[in-house]
């Protein structure tokens, strides 16, 4: 006697399985329906920090040509991130532990790159400030030295230009001897034809 097994078909023409004959993959189906985080802000703090450690540990061990250059903006390297870095990092992570989408990795890489560039900017700014400050100190030092030098020159020049002054005691009289090259009419005791004109000229000067 031949046993005939009836097969129930659904409207699409495929076999309908009863509860006993369905694949026992409830766990897989459950996992596929689990919610995956698409943004870093959605993740619990502990999970986020653990992912960050694993992610950047793995990224640091990727080939040099896949590393981001902090001298360049993130936008200029966006294709490298989307097409190479993110897909490769997704393969290194345990996605059963880290229920995330690619958007989370992209966001973390972006944040890290921006942080590094900010630190680089601050460092360069600090170095420039130090150079400027050092330059100002050198300029001030040079100005100070110049002022001291000019003061020295001015002081000594002024002293050199001063007329020699002699102070005599009232009780003393010192007769000065005229230089040998002095004209005879300038010497004491002159009694020549220029005596009167010279005396008049001196008198006029004294009366002014």
Structure, explained:
The chain is mostly helical and 208 residues long. It has a domain at 32-124. The protein is built from five helices and no strands. It has helices at residues 26-32, 45-60, 78-92, 102-161, 195-207. The protein is rod-shaped, with a radius of gyration of 52 Å. The relative contact order is 0.06. Residues 25-34 have a biased composition (Basic residues). Residues 178-187 have a biased composition (Polar residues).
SSE layout:
Layout (H helix, E strand, L loop, with lengths): L25 H7 L12 H16 L17 H15 L9 H60 L33 H13 L1
Ends: how far apart?
A: 165 Å
Helix content: 40-55%
Sequence stretches where pLDDT stays below 50 over 5 or more residues: none
| Helical segment count | 5
Report the count of strand segments: 0
User: Gyration radius, to the nearest Å?
Assistant: 52 Å
Q: Can you give the mean pLDDT? A: 76
Query: What's the story with the biggest beta sheet?
Result: none
Q: Beta fraction of the residues? A: under 5%
Q: What would you call the structural class?
A: mainly alpha
Shape: rod-shaped
Summarize the helix and strand pattern as letters.
HHHHH
């Amino acid at each position: 006697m031949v046993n005939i097994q009836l097969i129930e078909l659904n409207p699409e023409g495929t076999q309908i399985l009863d509860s006993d004959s369905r694949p026992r993959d409830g766990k897989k189906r459950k996992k596929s329906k689990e919610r995956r985080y698409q943004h870093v802000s959605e993740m619990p703090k502990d999970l986020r920090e653990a992912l960050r450690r694993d992610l950047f540990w793995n990224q640091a061990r990727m080939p040099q040509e896949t590393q981001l250059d902090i001298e360049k903006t993130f936008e200029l390297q966006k294709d490298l991130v989307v097409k190479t870095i993110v897909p490769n990092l997704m393969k290194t992570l345990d996605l059963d532990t880290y229920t995330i989408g690619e958007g989370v990795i992209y966001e973390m890489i972006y944040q890290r790159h921006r942080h590094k560039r900010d630190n680089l900017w601050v460092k360069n700014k600090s170095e420039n400030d130090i150079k400027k400050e050092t330059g100002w100190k050198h300029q001030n030092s040079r100005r100070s030295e110049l002022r001291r030098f000019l003061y020295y020159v001015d002081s000594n020049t002024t002293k050199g230009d001063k007329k020699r002054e002699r102070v005599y005691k009232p009780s003393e009289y010192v007769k000065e001897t005229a230089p040998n090259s002095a004209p005879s009419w300038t010497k004491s005791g002159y009694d020549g034809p220029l005596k009167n004109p010279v005396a008049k000229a001196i008198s006029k000067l004294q009366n002014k």
